[in-house]
Amino acid sequence: MQIGCLVLRDFRNYRSLSYRPSARLNVLSGRNAQGKTNLLEGLGVLLTGRSFRTSRLGELPSWGTAASTLSGELIHTEGTRSVRRTIQRLEDGTWQSAGDVCPWARVIVFGWQDLGILNGPPAARRNFIDGFAARLYAGHLPALLRYRQILARRNRLLQTSDAESRLAPWNEQLATVGMELIDRPASAPRCASPATGKWPLSSWGS
């Protein structure tokens, strides 16, 4: 998937923005508080209907406005698709997000706080890749939960006196679900390679 264009109206600090990224890697450079993260947030909201920074929709429209509009074009192997989303305040004062759903569009957020994935313990990297794989493959998270449940029950069984005679069914289940899990985390990082065009934007500040 590639981003053809992104248009923001009354979103955060943008009264009006039209951005057309290149087909490969894009770097957003500028001083702090100029809107780099807001642009990335707008892209995420357009594709998913939610922000990676806040759960309060009322924080997204520009100050003093009652609605915000986001639109764009997504380029896929099957063609180009236009998407549009509106965030507006209702008569009762609550906020509503409504717009198009694109099932093959995926958004993965990677921020400075995620640097632990690179220089932290192995568990941080496993959790990140599992989370990434869960976005790409609908069956990954249920399989991961099943694996952890089976492993916990098997570990409890190991504490009993007759564990050896009862381990075989649990070993078989553990191997079956484990094989199901191995492939997805291994292939997920390849999907994040800049060469695939699936990571079109990055943000740098001074």
Provide an overview of this structure.
- Helices cover 38% and strands 25% of the residues.
- It has 206 residues and is an alpha+beta fold.
- The chain folds into 2 domains: 2-107, P-loop containing nucleotide triphosphate hydrolases (Rossmann fold); 115-192.
- The chain has a 5-stranded antiparallel β-sheet, with helices on one face. A two-stranded parallel sheet has the order 3-7.
- The model is unreliable at 194-206 (pLDDT under 50).
Give the tags.
206 residues, 7 strands, 2 domains, two-stranded parallel sheet, five-stranded antiparallel β-sheet, Rossmann fold, elongated, alpha+beta, disordered C terminus
Outline of this structure?
The protein is an alpha+beta fold and 206 residues long. The chain is built from six helices and seven strands; from the N terminus they run E-E-E-H-E-E-E-H-H-H-H-H-E. Helix 3 (122-136) packs across helix 6 (168-191).
